[in-house]
Amino acid sequence: MTGTITSRRWPDPIEAAAEPLLTLYRAVFEHIDDAYLLSRLPHMADPMLWIAEDEAGWVGFKLGYRRGATLLYSWLGGVHPRARGQGVASALMVRQHEAAAAQGYARVETRTRAANNAMLMLNLRHGFHVCGYEIDARGIPVVTLRKSLG
């Protein structure tokens, strides 16, 4: 991975990172609605954002939040198409887990579409275990994965 990985707490106020995050979010995900991201941000308990940057700006992100006393839910992340295949997602995940463990989290959980093989493989390589499977409200198969940080 070229560039640097910075780990930061979600800015206060939340709006401080909304625009650069939305710019990256639009580049990462096709056919996505800004309202989906913006409507969830204010309702996250103890949100934490990790950013990967290179000389041109933000190239990756990982956004998680507290669910219960010791569970970090790794909700959303992605890598800009120009930076894919360079280890950005893996580096962000390592940084996220290190920071979460240092802050007292015991476990991290995530969900991904069953068809998202790249994300499933990344999670499995980083010690996650499949702990659930369901068909969501839109009819999309989703896999839940969990990892112990201890």
List the uncertain runs.
none
Overall tally of structural domains? 1
Strand segment tally: 7
Cα shape: globular
Give the number of helices: 4
Overall mean pLDDT stands at 90
CATH architecture, by name, is 3-Layer(aba) Sandwich
Biggest β-sheet: strands ordered side by side in the sheet: 1-2-3-4-5-7-6
The sequence of SSEs as H and E is EHHEEEHEHEE
> How is the main sheet built?
7 strands, mixed
Task: Name the CATH superfamily classification.
Answer: Gcn5-related N-acetyltransferase (GNAT)
| Beta fraction | 35-45%
What is the CATH third-level topology name? Aminopeptidase
Summarize the amount of helix as a percent range.
25-40%
CA-CA gap between termini: 26 Å
What do you see in this structure?
- The structure is a single chain.
- The chain has one domain: Aminopeptidase (3-Layer(aba) Sandwich), CATH 3.40.630.
- It is about 30% helix and about 35% strand.
- It contains four helices and seven strands; from the N terminus they run E-H-H-E-E-E-H-E-H-E-E.
- A seven-stranded mixed β-sheet has the order 1-2-3-4-5-7-6.
- The radius of gyration is 15 Å and the shape is globular.
